[in-house]
Structure to design on (525 residues):
């Protein structure tokens, strides 16, 4: 009569215990008891022994008796891993479910990429200021746009490399190893004399491409039919092969004084037009991701255009359809801690979509890689921070000993680190406002695609990288963030966010002034 029947699907002992403490009765799904027996005694290995005992099922307990009595009743509250895994017969109009339908519009890499492309038509916001530019390779127009972007980024990168080498004093890069000479383009493409830089025309071509691109960005081509910079007479296959030698194999570049001034001037103007100019670096690294996978599956980093296109169209993974890939500009200049890359897992809850109502969790955690950050080595251990990826790697001998052994920090530990850098205000003045704004923009961009009914809710986990300027960059949003802790920090935080979520979506209905823990309302339409 009180409508306090619940069903839990998945490894959520804390949810089960918290609901029972509120007087709720569990309707167990068929086979759940046998499934629990098979997993005992390592049923909840991430919990302390005393908490695990509280989660154990006593066959003679009042909970089992009550579960038997409500076995034919529909649950009023459902907490499940995935909405698709829930029996449709259990989903009624008046029950509360911890998921919405249609959220793949922002919780898959492909969906988020498409939704944020539409953002400028929904609100006055530029996704390029918080989301690394991204393309769906299965869509011909986007694939062509990516190729053009790769070309333009290579041209900008070449000018950055040329300026770096010029500097205030001549800096000679390493000699090209003999093994690399097989990659050199045909001699007819080079007019270099013995002892001179191998590609004297390369800087001139890059300057011309960047000039044309700047004109497009400044809308100087509106009244004339200027072709795209990537459709000029440049042989881009040759240009890229020569750029690869400069960027990755140590080939030299030499600038005249005039070219040096042109490079400085052009790059300064491009930086004013391109929000991602600084974070994109100078090695043209891109990250290729299956469009609907999670936990780092299938992700690779690469610097070669041909590798991106070949990988996306010759996929051997049975779970990824050919062409269902996204490619995203890799952040080459992240903030690192003790020389190691990290990302931030940030939770938030949506309790309504009309009006859109969003609650931000004030606690979060950092995830570290197992090896020092390096753009000369693109293996997963250095570049993918997912716990599900890093658990397969041991900490490398060259890793700074100050990196936490379990590769996890709380946001409070991060704030202490920022204070040591003299940047104590960066967390509250730059990072948190930036994360909130990015989350709200992503939600608004996909709002019309979500199907929902009143009373339900969903807990999400957003992943962010941090730039050298402390600006947060949204990577993805997960609809079923893991609650299986991998460290002492996440054991506490994952338990807290589950308890606080129940306070927010259940207790607050009866008592609007009750504590909701670390949640704060950041948006209500």
């Amino acid at each position: 009569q009180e409508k306090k029947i619940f069903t839990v699907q998945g490894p959520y002992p804390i949810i089960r215990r918290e609901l029972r403490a509120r007087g709720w009765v569990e309707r167990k799904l068929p086979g759940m008891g046998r499934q629990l027996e098979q997993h005992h005694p390592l049923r909840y290995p991430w919990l302390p022994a005393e908490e695990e005992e509280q989660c154990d099922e006593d066959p003679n307990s009042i909970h089992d008796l009550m579960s038997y009595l409500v076995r034919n009743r529909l649950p009023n509250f459902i907490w499940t891993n995935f909405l698709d895994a829930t029996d449709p017969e259990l989903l009624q109009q008046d029950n509360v479910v911890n998921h919405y339908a249609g959220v793949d519009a922002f919780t898959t890499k492909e969906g988020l990429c498409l939704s944020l492309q539409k953002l400028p038509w929904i609100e006055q916001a530029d996704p390029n200021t918080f989301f690394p530019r991204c393309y769906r390779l299965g869509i011909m127009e986007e694939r062509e746009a990516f190729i053009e972007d790769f070309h333009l980024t290579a041209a900008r990168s070449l000018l950055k490399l040329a300026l770096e080498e010029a500097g205030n004093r001549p800096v000679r890069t390493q000699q090209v190893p003999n093994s690399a000479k097989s990659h050199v383009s045909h001699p007819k493409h080079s007019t270099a004399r013995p002892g001179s830089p191998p590609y004297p025309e390369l800087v001139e071509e890059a300057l011309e491409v960047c000039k044309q691109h700047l004109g497009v960005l400044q809308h100087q081509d509106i009244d004339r039919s200027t072709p795209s910079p990537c459709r000029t007479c440049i042989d881009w296959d040759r240009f890229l092969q020569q750029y690869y030698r400069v960027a990755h194999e140590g080939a030299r570049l030499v600038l005249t004084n005039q070219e040096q001034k042109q490079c400085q001037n052009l790059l300064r103007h491009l930086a004013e037009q391109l929000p991602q100019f600084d974070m994109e670096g100078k090695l043209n690294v891109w990250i290729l991701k299956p469009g609907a996978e999670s936990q780092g599956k299938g992700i690779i980093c690469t610097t070669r255009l041909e590798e991106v296109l070949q990988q996306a169209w010759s996929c051997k993974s049975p779970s990824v359809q050919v062409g269902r890939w996204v490619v995203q500009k890799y952040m080459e200049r992240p903030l690192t801690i003790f020389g190691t890359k990290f990302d931030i897992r940030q939770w938030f809850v949506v309790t309504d979509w009309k009006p859109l109502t969003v609650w931000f969790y004030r606690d979060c955690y950092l995830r570290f890689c197992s090896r020092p950050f390096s753009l000369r080595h693109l293996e997963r251990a250095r570049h993918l921070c997912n716990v599900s990826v890093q658990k397969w790697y041991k900490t490398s001998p060259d890793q700074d000993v100050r990196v936490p052994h379990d590769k996890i920090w709380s946001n409070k530990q991060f704030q202490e680190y920022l204070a040591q850098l003299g940047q104590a205000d960066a967390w509250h003045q730059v990072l948190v406002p930036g994360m909130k704004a990015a989350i709200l923009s992503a939600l608004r961009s996909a709002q019309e695609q979500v199907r929902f009914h009143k009373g339900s809710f969903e807990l999400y986990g957003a992943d962010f990288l941090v730039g050298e300027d402390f600006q947060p960059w949204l990577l993805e949003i997960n609809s079923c963030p893991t609650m299986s802790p991998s460290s002492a920090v996440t054991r506490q935080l994952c338990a807290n966010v589950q308890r606080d979520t129940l306070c927010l979506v259940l207790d607050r209905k009866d008592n609007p002034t009750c504590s909701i823990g670390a949640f704060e309302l950041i948006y209500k339409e």
In short: Residues 5-38+57-91 form one domain.
